[in-house]
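Thought: the user wants the 3D structure for the chain below. I'll pass the sequence to the structure tool as-is, report back what it returns, then summarize two notable features.
Action: structure_tool
Action Input:
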Amino acid sequence: MIEALGFQFIQNALIAGLLVSITCGIVGSLVVVNRMVFIAGGIAHGAYGGLGLALFLGISPLFGALGFSAVLAVTIAFLTYANKERADAVIGAIWAFGMAVGIIFADMSEGYNTDLTSFLFGSILSVSIGDLWLMGAVCFFITVFAAVFYKEFLAVSFDMEFAQLQGLNTRIFYTVLMIMTAFCIVACIRAVGLILVVALLSIPPYIAEKFCAKLSRMMILSALLSASFTLLGLALSYMFDLTSGASIILVASLAFFIVKICIKNRL
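Observation:
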């Protein structure tokens, strides 16, 4: 495995894994404490519409997914903010709409050669320099924004009604959190794909939550866990010629079940 570090695509994959881990550690923690995993799943699958549209227009698939998923995120925030109890119906509609749009535009793209399967299941070993720049920009934006407005996100996450009474515009931060989730999902497409990205967003934060009493520590531990799962998954993928995205999620899932069993037996 050590000799593989000399290859450019392995180096790109490691850098991508680190950037994705930091992003997922921050956003995933907010998603888990706000009980938004299903919403994140809706945005992830809906982002497929952006991939199909980008293919049809002949632009970068990741930029297409970024713009399309951001629109979906704002739409979901608008429709669910005042009525979160019925969010499941909205997410189901968004989920189906995005997938349908992606398939239709892919069908309308004559003679396309792009393998959209890699965006569904991930291909971190094929990450390009351009992808790394996008991942880096998303990671920087999310890290800075979360650090600057940490207290506001903390208030919105644990007691939105009280935060609103204190004069905080909770609707704006709820919408921003949705957009951050969309950006995080797009940044993870190359690593684990749209189908599996929800697992990387939810599993490390769930594990970290069991050992951390503060949201900031949960974010840091979640990022470290994500990085560990990514590195182990990459090693398995390289050694046994397996799909990289699935290998990463397999490692994360096994860790989830181990922690779950250990906590249950302890209780």
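Final Answer: Structure generated. The chain has one domain: 7-266. Residues 25 and 223 are 4 Å apart (CA to CA).
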